[in-house]
Structures are given as C-alpha cells and as structure tokens.
Amino acid sequence: MKKSMAALAIATSLLMGGVAKADTSLVIAIAADPTGLDPMAVANITSNYIAATMFNSLLAFKPGTVEIEPGIAESWEISPDGKTYSFKIRKGVTYHDGTALDAKTVFWAFDRLLNKANPQYIFDMGRVERNVKRYEDAIKSYRVVDDYTLEVVLNAPRGDFLASLTEVGFGLISPTAAAKHGKEIRNHPVGTGPFKFKEFRSHDQVILEANKDYWRGAPKVDNLIFKIYPSQQSAILALKNGDVHILADFSVQALSAVKGDAGVNVVDTPGLVVQGVVIPVNKPPFDDKRVRQALNYAIDKEGMNKGLFQGYAETMFSPLPRAQWGANAALQPYPYDPEKAKVLLQEAGVKPGTKLEILTFNAPRPYNPAGPSTAVAVQSYLKRVGIEADVRQMETGALLSTARSGKYDGFVLGGW
What pTM, to 2 d.p., does this model score? Predict the structure, then answer.
C-alpha cells in the first residue's frame, strides 16, 4: 500500500532592497517541531530537512540527480574485490566550533556508530531513531591511513554503500561538540555545512546563521529560519503576506489557494519521497501473506492519486520510486480488486468486522500532502472488504515516539 509523490514546493520571491545592505533571511514554513538535530540519531523528514543545511556527509548527490559526487571525501578508490574503500578527505574544512576536520574526525564518526566502547557511542546518547544496523552488517573494519586518508573494509561488496554515505544520517558532527554536550548534542548541533545552529524555540522557529567560511562558498542569505506553522491556513497567509518564502509542508488542496497568484511559484519535479501503510507483520492475522495481499488489493490507489493528490502521486510498483536508481519499472503494482481481497481474507480465516488501528500524523508531510485524509481514505476502502479500521491522529513527535517504542503493534501511515 505505497505511493510515491512528486516533489512539490511553493515559494515566493525573496526581495532585498534599501541603500545599505541589511541582514537577509530566507524563511521556510514547516508543520511541526524537529524531534532533534543530531543527524546520526534522528530520522524523520522534518529533522532531516533542517539538519541537511548544517551538515555535510562523506559523499553527496549532484543536485537534482541521484548521481554520487564528492562531499567531505574529495575522491575515493575501490579495491578490485569491491570490499576496500579508500577515501581522500578534503583539506581545509572546519566544523562550526573551529575543530579541524580530518581523517581522525571522520574515523570518529564511524566509530561512534559502530564501537560500543566509544564515549559518544550513538546508543548511549539518547533515543536513536535511525537504522544503523546496515552499517554494522556492512563494515568489517575502518582505520586512519594518514591525516587525510581513511580506509573502510566491508564484509562483502555492497552496491549501496557509497549511496549510504550521501545521506543526512551520515552527517559529520563535531567530536568536540559531542564530548562537550553529551546526550544534549541533538539540541546543540555542530556540523560543517552552509548554516550554523543559532536557536530553537519549540512550537515557534529554528534559527540558523550563515557559515561565512563554508568550503563550498558562503550562502547567499545571512539567516535561514524554519518557522513552525501547524495550521495550513496560517502558513498560506504568511506566504501571501511575505512573512515566509517557502512552504515545505503543505496540503495538495493548498495548491488551489495559491495557483494563479503572481507572486507565488509552484515547483513540480519527480520526487524520491515515498509513503505507505506500515503493517505489523508479526501480529496475527497480518502475519499471513494472503491477508497482506488482500489489504493491497482492497485499496484503490489510482483513485486516491487522482482524488487526494490531484495526479501528483504515482502508485508504487517496486520498493523504490521511479526516479531512484535501482527501481525496476518492469514490476507491476497491485491492481484494485476488492472481490479478490474478500476471497483472500476468507481463505485466511479473517472474519468480517476484524478491527485494526491506523496511526497517522495530524498534519501534511512532505511525502503526504493530503495529511490524515490519506488514512481516512484507506479506512473507507478497508471497510468495503469487511475490515473495521480506526484512525488515530497524533502530533509528529508523539507519533514517532509511539510507533518506534517497540510496543505499538498497530498500523502506521508513514513514509520517507
């Protein structure tokens, strides 16, 4: 039960005027607080969106593509057997607190993820949302070769290893700051990116200031402000009034409120974001493959795409969206077939009136501009095949805490 979304952004022009140069600020509207800003520990789109402006990863994607390019590593070599990677670390880069970046600090980043004896071991620094097991499974060893060369040896060749080093989740954090702040590092982020953390006021805004010494060149604005607007109406009004310049979290329905406005641009491009319903596969009767298949046949995803998302969504045909490297376009999505769903449920012994709960965010997300309406639509389709679904809406932080507690065994409308 997945769909991918086109990447949408709504923006106004950033106007600068006057004789003397004043500080310029780019203001971006988001719908909820970040749950933390330690990129290695926190995994949700809101937090990652902000962290991506403060941190660099070892590698990067070329803008607008999924082609890998140098980041903090300016070059790399791979051994003939595909298991040994030698990274040349970029010289002259410093963290925002003045700590010099070199092979030792990058080594520390790997060590923080993988070494339980590290004083700042990631799992000793508070709740970890991000999946780091893939690094544990993939990496056999890592060592400093010289001041600006790091070697990483894998247990076996991995086609996705370089791509994993482009992610915000491998954002390089200052070891000096991590030692200073301990568990509070998620509230005192220190990276090497184009913007530096200045202030976070819960339910209000996150303020960042330009890193004038950024190794790629100083940003073109002095401040980057993420303003929190849980209300879509308030966010749209702020956009039209010029109080914000970009809407990052908005409903598809909001498009009709801004289309045709001469001062507003709607940017539409193929996206990498994915949303779907997470199924508790270890809980009966959902541990039966026939039941999971039935749930997929029960949902008219094309109807939802046209009705809820105004054609901006595409039904998933593989675990990866079409724009992502590795997506297999030869695969076919589940068609809408409620009668087949009923047959499979009957074969699996699922009785009409079986109940389940769907947990959903109470506001739009970048991968789900329809917000909780998506869960309500799923609820309606399931009812037609005899499944009674209750929809429970929660604020972002509370939902993430509940869904990732290890105790929740219901369904979750989520994405990435």
Answer: 0.81
Q: How many residues does the chain have?
A: 416
Q: What is the identity of the amino acid at 192?
A: T
Q: pLDDT tens for residues 269-319?
A: 777 788 889 999 999 999 999 999 999 999 999 999 888 888 888 888 888
The rounded Cα 404 to chain-centroid distance in angstroms is 15
**pLDDT tens profile 334-357:** 999 999 999 999 999 999 999 999
User: Using H for helix, E for strand and C for coil, what is the string for the chain?
Assistant: CEEEECEEEEEECCCCCCCCCCCCEEEEEECCCCCCCCCCCCCCHHHHHHHCCCCCCCEEECCCCCCEEECCEEEEEECCCCCEEEEEECCCCECCCCCECCHHHHHHHHHHHHCCCCCCCHHHCCCCCCCCHHHHHHEEEEEEEECCEEEEEECCCCCCHHHHCCCHHHCCCCHHHHHHHHHHHHHCCCCCCCEEEEEEECCCEEEEEECCCCCCCCCCCCEEEEEECCCHHHHHHHHHHCCCCEECCCCHHHHHHHCCCCCEEEEEECCCCEEEEECCCCCCCCCCHHHHHHHHHHCCHHHHHHHCCCCCEEECCCCCCCCCCCCCCCCCCCCCCHHHHHHHHHHCCCCCCEEEEEEEECCCECCECCCCHHHHHHHHHHHCCCEEEEEEEECHHHHHHHHCCCCCCCEEEEEC
Q: Is the dihedral of CA 72, 76, 81, 84 positive or negative?
A: negative
Q: How far apart are the first and last CA of the chain?
A: 14
- Alpha-carbon distance of 372 to 319, in angstroms, equals 23
Phi, psi torsion values for 301, nearest 5 degrees: -70, -35
